[in-house]
Each structure stands twice: as C-alpha cells, then as structure tokens.
Design goal:
By secondary structure, the chain is α+β, with helices and mostly antiparallel strands. 27% of the residues lie in helices and 48% in strands. This is IDEAL domain-containing protein.
Length: 94
C-alpha cells in the first residue's frame, strides 16, 4: 500500500472507498470519496480525511477508462498533489 492507492475499508455494514494520503506506522490516512451500504452508493461532496488501521484497508485493483483518468487528474489538481498528478498523467500518456 502506498500514497495515492485507491482502497476500500469495510466498517460494519458499509464500505468506504477512497485514496491513501499518507501512511504513518500502522495507520493509513484516507481521503473518503464514497460510502456504499448494500446497493446504495453515496458520493461525498467534500472528501474527508479519515484514519484507519492498515489491516482494515484493501488496495483496489483498478483499470480506468481515459475519461475516468481525466477526472482523477482533475482531482489531483484540485488537491494540489503534484506527485499524484505526475503519476496519473504519465499513466495516461502510456
């Protein structure tokens, strides 16, 4: 698990989906993007930074379409994350 990985966190009856901001010790700080309960999916208007234990987080294997990648690049720009932006644009060019 590393910075910018997309993860899911199972908490009781819901799944949190977000991306890793930083790892400190056994804690993972995740920007929450979406919550899933059963068939209901709720996208958060403001992403929230939350802390979880590493063993609660599962890295998501994602294959993104070009349109999806462009939206995530916009997110990297909005969060002023230069490293993530560079990683995403490099992946888009390949």
């Amino acid at each position: 698990m590393k910075h910018s990985d997309w993860v899911q966190v199972l908490i009781l009856d819901r799944i949190i989906v977000g991306y890793v901001d930083v790892l400190i010790g056994d804690r993972v700080y995740v920007w929450k993007v979406c919550e899933v309960r059963g068939k209901e999916r709720k996208y958060l208007k403001k992403h929230l930074l939350s802390s979880y234990y590493k063993n609660q987080c599962t890295v998501m294997e994602l294959e993104l379409e070009t349109a999806d990648m462009k939206e995530i690049i916009d997110l990297a720009l909005a969060t002023h994350d230069k490293e993530w932006f560079q990683e995403l644009t490099d992946r888009l060019i390949m």
